[in-house]
Amino acid sequence: MSALAGRVCSTPRLAGTRPSRSLLYSLGGYLLLLLLAACEHATTLIDPTAPADTTVDDGTVQKATLTVTVALTGNDSLLASLVGCEGGILRDAEVTIERSGTPGSLQSATTDAAGRVRFERLLPGTYAVSVIRVLTPDEVAQFPGEDADVNAFGGAARIGVSPPSTEMVVQAVAGRRGSLVISELSLPLPWLPAGYEYRYGQFIELYNNSDTTIYLDGKVVVRGFINGARGSAASPCDLHEPWQNDPEGIWTDLIEAFPGSGHTYPLAPGKTVVVAVDAIDHREFHPGLQDLSRAEFEFIGPADVDNPSAANMRTLGKEFGGGILTHGLDFGLVDVVTVLAEPVDVDSLTRDNIPALLSPEHWRIPGEKILDVLTASPTPAIEATVPYPPCARYVHENFDRQRAAVLDHKKLDGVQRRVFATLPDGRKILLRTKTSSTDFVARYPATPGFIPD
Question: pLDDT digit string (tens) for 307-361?
Fold first, then answer.
């Protein structure tokens, strides 16, 4: 990986082949404003769905109690018994609940010896419930060799809570550290003095979480099916549910592959690689953005300047839309479904047309090809202002059990994967329970190419 680590951004393509960056982004902002103005009278916003409160005769809201039991089955139950969790329950696990559409409603408690936790005086409504029990290195040392990559137990669910009391069981599963994982995703959206929002400072950072060298050649980065992440009258969640909640894989129309012929781009254990939307110094446009001129790879489109020091990702399937404003793939502006997978042959993938979309043709990335998934949505405070409610699931729980409600594009931060442990040689092992709400947190500033403690 040393060949990647020392790259320095050199002069962009020869003058005359593409417009200058300043002219390009000014023109892009101007055209974006024209597009927004043209669409203004065709856009109708609806009020968010009212919370499902229950009232009694005097008009007061009746509160509820929620009891959560965290359970395990099969081999995961056997592993848990080795760390003191007998009988198929998970003790000493942190359970977090949050009421949908209610900023500041986050509560956490720890399960008792029976694997239970109780929350009292809750407003009725729908709650997101997440569970995490991070294991210590001494606990992991008690597992047999084939399970030495387990670093936590985690799970998640959603439930409607109603008075006087509601009970639920959350199934926890063993989280395994995997191999190549998403370690950070940054989607800043600052408002520039020129009068438009700048969306080209996005990047994804990948990390080798294994003990052996990984070759990036041919592996794919996918923007999953986010157009159906929210329901509206014209495009309700039920219409897209068969594709969003498909246990066989994740649907997409945008697939980008790493270049290389098989052994061109090695990534050593404990090393990162950054793929930028534009591999330039974005501080030129806003001081809170990142210098991505040393990014090892970049997405490429007809409207951006090509950094020859960053290898170009290869577009499979459709080109990212947008005409003159296109800078290649971006990861979304409201919701995120980002997928990392082994190489795929697009011609052999299952394809289908998803209804109520302007561009309906999509491909399914098979579950056996998927290496890692990040799903995310806005913070509760921002979610309360979004006119369309999110659908219950963005992907099937086989791939991610609960999205992370962490996105705040104006803070210019990064969504970063938590560190599970640091090995004696200083190499970090990242947490991976296949539950984005427990695996990822928002941190400022973003740290491309570096794993913070």
Answer: 999 999 999 977 665 444 577 888 887 899 999 999 999 999 999 998 877 778 8
Task: Please check whether residues 232 and 377 belong to one and the same domain.
Answer: yes
Residues with Cβ within 8 Å of 10's Cβ and at least 6 positions away in sequence, in order, are 307, 308, 309
Total tally of structural domains belonging to the chain: 2
CATH number of the domain where residue 83 is located: 2.60.40.10
pLDDT the model gives residue 55:
52
Q: Give the DSSP letter string of 113-141.
A: TTSEEEEEEEPSEEEEEEEEEEPPHHHHT
Which residues of the chain are modeled with pLDDT < 50?
1-53, 56-57, 322-324
Answer yes or no: do 289 and 415 share one domain.
Answer: yes
Contact of 439 with 402, CB cutoff 8 Å: no
Residues whose CB falls within 8 Å of the CB of residue 78, separated by 6 or more in sequence, listed in order: none
278-280-284 Cα angle (round to 5): 120
Q: Which residue has the tokens 């597009």?
A: 35
pTM above 0.85, yes or no: no
